[in-house]
Structure formats: C-alpha cells, structure tokens
Amino acid sequence: MRKNTWIAYVFLLPTLIAMAVLVFYPLLLGISYSFTDMNQYNMGNQFVPPSYKFVGLANYKEVLFSSDSEFWNILLNTVIWTFTNVFFHFTIGLILALLLNQKIKGRAIYRMLMLVPWAVPSFVSAFAWRWMFNGEYGFINLFLKTYFHLEPIAWLSNKWTAMFAVILTNIWLGIPFMMVTMLGGLQSIPRELYEAADVDGASPVKKFFNITLPLLKPVAFSATLLGTIWTFNMFNVIYLLTGGGPARGTEILVTYAYREAFANWNFGLSATYGVIILSFLIAFSIFYSRVVKDAGEKVY
User: Fold this and answer.
1) 191-244, pLDDT tens digit by residue?
2) Could you give the CA distance from residue 165 to residue 129 in angstroms, rounded to a whole number?
3) Which of 34, 150, 210, 295 could connect to 272 by a Cys-Cys bridge, CB 3.0–4.6 Å?
C-alpha cells in the first residue's frame, strides 16, 4: 500500500500548485511590501522600473506608535463591530435552530425563508439596507414616523447610528449561516440521549445545558471562529453602506487598509495593515482554540 502513496500526491499536486500561485505567493509578496515605502510614484510600471526602498519596520512603527496614527481608534471600531455581530449571529442563530429543530407545521417553509439573506449577494443587501436607512425617504424612518410619530433620523450621518445601521445589516446577513450550522449540529445529536433524560425526569433547561450545549460545542466552536474571521474582514457592508464614515466612525481595519491602498495610494502602509490583520486573526484563532480545548477538558 505504501508503494502507491505517490498517487495521492499526484492528485494533490494541482491543488498545491493553485494554492501556491493564488494564496501563498500573493501573501508572501504582500508581507514583503509591508517593509517597503511603495506608493503610486515609485511602484514602477511597464515604462519605468520600480524605485521603492526597503524601510524595515518603519511602517509598523508609524501604524502602531505614531501620534498621527488612527490605528487604535479603528481597532476599537473593529472589535466592537466583530464582537457585536458574532454575539448576535450566534445567539439568534442558535435560537432559530432550536425552533426549527422542533416538529412544527411549515418548518420547511420557515427554513427556506430564513435562508433568503444568505442567498442574496451581500452587495445587493447592502444597497437595499442603505435605501431603508435613508434619512428622508427610507422605509425605517417612514415606519417610525407613521406608527410612532417620530422625527426622521439621519441614520448614516451620526457615528453611533451609522454603526448601529451597519451592525444591524450584517446581523441580518450572518444569521442564516449560523442557524444552518447550528441546526446541522442539533440534528446530529442522538435522540436516545433526550429520551433517556425524559425518563430521568430532566427539565428542558437541564437537557439544554447538559446534553445540547456540550455536544454542540465542536460545531459552535468552528462556526464562531469562522464567523469571527469573516466579520473581522467584512468589507462589503461597511464600504457600501457608509464608506467608513461619518468621520471614520464606522471604519474598520480592512476598509482602512483598502483606503490607504486605493485612495491614498500608499501600498506599503496598506500591506502593513494587511499583515497586522492577519497577525490578529492568527493570534485569536490560537488563543480561542486553547480556551475551548481547556474548557472541554474541564467539562469532560
């Protein structure tokens, strides 16, 4: 059997080549750019050779320690954005999954309707929500004025209301993924465990905390980790809904990195933000994995 293992590597080779060309090479190239002063003037083109220089850790010092840097304010926005979204994604997604896991009439229809936000492209949803949050003609303001007699709110013109708007939009977009993932985890739990718990007279609350949550933990861990990574890098919603405004009140690290690259044409600094984002996500993934592993060992 071992003599034929080379066949597996042959089948893996196209995938490895594609990964190297499309993922690892651009990643290493981006990391290398973060140590340069590359911009639109020295990046070079087909007529002029590149003239950017190696500057070492200068970009990192400018981002992390410069008094003019907005990194820490934007990082705070990113943390608020990510934590709030993932919390509501998980909470609401789990509640909906628990409801859809019951034998209720029309369950298939409800499940299909819940998947609509996931089926619609995110940029289409972002434009739709931007129209609904319009201060003058938006559906939300018209609803509040008609039924609650409230004055129109300039949702996208104030930092806190704009942050509320983008978070609400992304919660609506992210719930279906979490719901489907949790529902799959719930349906994989053996029914015999609940039947045994019923025989012992366990209440629904006890069954939830002693059967459902422990057995759902591996699925919940993967779903929340993926949700955190995706939300941390969620570019479409913020860029299309608020553009990071007002006054960068809804700016997060990934939109700021884009702005540095394609508005300020500072590619070296933008690459630095990209490396910092990658470092944060790797560190969080390792930390989160260890915390979940330790918690699992204590439970079992």
Assistant:
1) 999 989 989 888 989 999 999 999 999 899 999 999 999 999 999 999 999 999
2) 8
3) 34
Closest listed residue to residue 253, CA positions, set 84, 66, 28, 63:
63
Largest CA distance in the chain: 80
Helical residues (DSSP H) of 115-158, grouped into ranges: 116-119, 122-132, 139-148
| DSSP code for 18 | H
Residue pair 235/255 in contact by the 8 Å Cβ criterion? yes
Tokens found for residue 127: 């434009």
Q: Report the C-alpha gap between 180 and 188 in whole angstroms.
A: 12
Q: Measure the CA–CA gap between 11 and 240, rounded to whole angstroms.
A: 41
Whether 185 contacts 216, CB under 8 Å: yes
Q: Over 90: is that where the pLDDT of 68 sits?
A: no
Question: How much is the average pLDDT of 43-65?
Answer: 93
| pLDDT tier at 6, thresholds 50, 70, 90 | confident
Instruction: Give the domains, in start order, of the chain with CATH numbers.
Output: 57-299 (1.10.3720.10)
pLDDT tops 90 at residue 92 = yes
Asked whether the beta carbons of 249 and 161 are under 8 A apart, the reply is no
pTM listed for this prediction: 0.91
Looking up tokens 């201060």, which residue turns up? 135
